[in-house]
Hints:
Blueprint: E1 4-7, H1 16-24, E2 28-31, H2 39-49, E3 53-56, H3 63-67, E4 74-77, H4 87-92, E5 96-98, H5 105-120, H6 123-131, E6 149-153, H7 157-167, E7 172-176, E8 188-189, H8 192-198, E9 201-204, H9 218-223, E10 228-232, H10 241-250, E11 253-258, H11 269-272, E12 277-279, H12 288-306
Amino acid sequence: MPGTVLLTDRAWPDDEVERGVITAAGxxxxxxxxxxxxxxxxxxxxxxxxxxxxxxxxxxxxxxAIEASPAxxxxxxxxxxxxxxxxxxxxxxxxxVTNVPDYCVPEVSDHALALVLAWTRGIVAADxxxxxxxxxxxxxxxxxxxxxxxxxVGYGRIGRETARKLGAFGCTLVATDxxxxxxxxxxxxxxxxxxxxxxxxxxxxxxxxxxxxxxIGAPQLARMxxxxxxxxxxxxxxxxxxxxxAALAGGHLGGAALDVLDSEPHVPPELLxxxxxxxxxxxxxxSDRSLLDLRRGAAEEVVRVLRDEPARxxxxxxxxxxxxx
Length: 325
């Protein structure tokens, strides 16, 4: 059916928002499993339903899936990163790829700042100690955020917002990005190695690509200042978890605040034993407002493309029939 939209998976309990937008526009929504399914199952669903559009959260949309539906016109990521979509295959097949790049900028930058503050003020360690029956304020080893240098790896929408919020605390800001802004303001731009050597806190906001896979590993952690904090609220594959665990165990790294892991949802037991590790389950993007913006935004993008209207956030430039200009 040319008017079918396949929802591969979701990170929320229902599909009411997506279904409401899609059906109100006159298209049919077919929902796959709630949890991300293996690539083979997604490919089977595409072969069965021959959708004109795919809405995907975490599930892999492979070349085989993209090639399985002659009617396919758009793959819409319900999120920012495109690492679960074969964008090259989509481009070759004349299929548009879209995302929702601005839905969670406040949430992810808030989460990064919250993790930094939890470390500088010792919130997590103090809570653990009190719950364990220890009331020892003299044992606190706290830091003034405004006296620290914070390095931001990746200076897109979220990186810029994190810098703005950190700037209110008076800390020194450095950043690295392949495309630094023409006017960086109070932020000093440099290369990654220099940023690591200068920073007390390193916050990762980069996209996951073949070039950034394992961007922060043992050599990079060794360049960080002793006792520093690493924060990753971007993609787990950017940071080598085993290297973080080793740096914590060896005492070089003072803290690691990780919302994402390269092995998620599996958490290495060795990481759980490290007092300096603060872990959250890939929730930096989430809030009541951000999820609503995400779900509506992705579904409305699909409707625009199927109505031959320009997409707001195209992420490739496919050639072929049925691709809006």
